[in-house]
Amino acid sequence: MVAQTRENQEGGASAKPRAKKPNAQWKIDGTEPMNHNEEFKLEDSGLNVRRRIEEKYAHEGFDAISDDDLHGRFRWWGLYTQRMPGIDGGRTAKLETRELEDRYFMMRIRLDGGQLSLEQLRTIAGISEEFARGTADVSDRQNIQMHWISVEDVPEIWRRLENVGLSTTEACGDVSRVILGSPLAGVAEDEILDPTPVIETIKERFIGDPDLANLPRKFKTAVSGHPSQDVVHEINDISLIGVEHPEHGPGFDLWVGGGLSTNPKLAVRLGAFVSEEQAPDMWHGVIRIFRDYGYRRLRNRARLKFLMADWGPEKFREVLEQEYLGYALEDGPEPSAPKHSGDHVGTHRQKDGNYYVGLSPMVGRVGGGLLTRLADLMEKYGSARLRTTPYQKLVVLDLPAESVEDFVAEAEELGLSASPSVFRRDTMACTGIEFCKLAIVETKNTAERVVGELEERLADVRDQLPEQLSLYVNGCPNSCARIQTADIGLKGQIIPDGEGGQTSGFQVHLGGGLANYRNDAEGELGRTVRGLKVAADDVSDYVERLIRRYIDTRTEGETFAR
Ligand code: SF4
After folding, report:
1. Substitution candidate for ligand 1 out of 82, 92, 436 with most atoms within 8 A of CB
2. What's the complex ipTM?
3. Residue 515 alpha carbon to ligand 1 centre in Å
4. Residue limits of the Nitrite/Sulfite reductase ferredoxin-like domain (predicted)?
5. Contact by Cβ (8 Å): 111, 166
6. What pLDDT was estimated at residue 546?
7. What's the per-residue H, E or C state across 17-75?
């Protein structure tokens, strides 16, 4: 009755239902662009800007760069303008991009599977020192990011990277981003299968493919054959997670449609078993579904998770099998719950009898100088392989048993701890206001300060602290540091300071977590606590109170995780 009354108020029972706007899905609505992003992508592929950088912009300089190249296509080669120093977070939303940006770039080097040889490590360290004022951060997507890059230096940086098999191709933009891979690929004693061949095949066949260089939005992939499920698979557009099929042996379980930021959603299982041989074609099928059926009208509804929310896993699997693969996938088993941590911090035995050591740089900051010293140390102790992790950590492989202790002691002196405090171990921070144009607050220095303060203040209860505790810090409502997946997630905001003014602070999210050994449960997104905001200066007070309350009130066997 109420509905009837409202209908009449809005124009009477005879009023025509408002036509639903098309979602600009290429396969249904055609490719006519419905916004400027779609326009510039159709006009000229992001991949083509490389030539202009090499032949024009690197010679003529920053001012010669066209707007669509600078704010659009440069991303296809891992380049974003960085924030102009000194602009406070309160002005972020009020200024145009041109007013916020500096004449320097962040450059993202994609490290598929997080795999680096000693030569590649030295090359990145050298580039950081020579062209990036010594900056280098390990991101939570296993990439390395540098800042202060001038467009004039980009061709030389590419030359050096490509000489050692690295690249920035499709490191950003509406494309297939870096492929997350288990940092222990090929070395773990308990590995179900090595994901490296699948990652390498996808990379060789499809990264830089012009047919896949205009997606509705970014497309994130994760592949792991390790039982700790160490690639945050629930928050990727597509994930392949190692399982043991009772008849076919090792293979993958397929997950689709995860993603954070606005409207965060966990990926869903399609219930399909994917063999190692099938995996690259299956990946190709899923990314083409996204290209062809993904929503392009509104950028904030373009990620694959929105299509998945409307279709559901049954329809998605049916379209994948019938329109893209041409065969039916077999049903497969679910992955077992992880038995131990997927951050791989500490010293562990490899299947060949050597050891790997997971090291914890502070909030992912490494820098060219530190990377050079790490390379020297690895060489001294006979390791030639390094892995980055989706937790902003480093894993050094192939250390002989007799060298491990000395290596760990020397790494500690470099500031790379193999036995970090619980706070340092799983505190992550995004780039934040130091370099990010979208940032509202500072993140990395804040997180580093909080880690130091908590280590000191909670020293009296060190033995009673939870074994792991995730504290993730974001500089804005985007979720580059995955705040919704943390025990304590902090989302940067300008908040009232209690005295009539404003200050940098955070909205608090609590109780998030992906499937892990602590909760033995499926992933769940953290929830905002209504009205709970903390000033940046008060974060340590807040976390200390929370932890002391947990210690005082916990019941037998209760972990800090939800
Ligand atoms: Fe920038 Fe926001 Fe992402 Fe942090 S979360 S890096 S501030 S966009």
Report:
1. 436
2. 0.99
3. 24
4. 101-163, 348-413
5. yes
6. 93
7. CCCCCCCCCHHHHCCCCCCHHHHHHHHCCHHHHHHHHHHHHHHHCHHHCCHHHHHCHHH
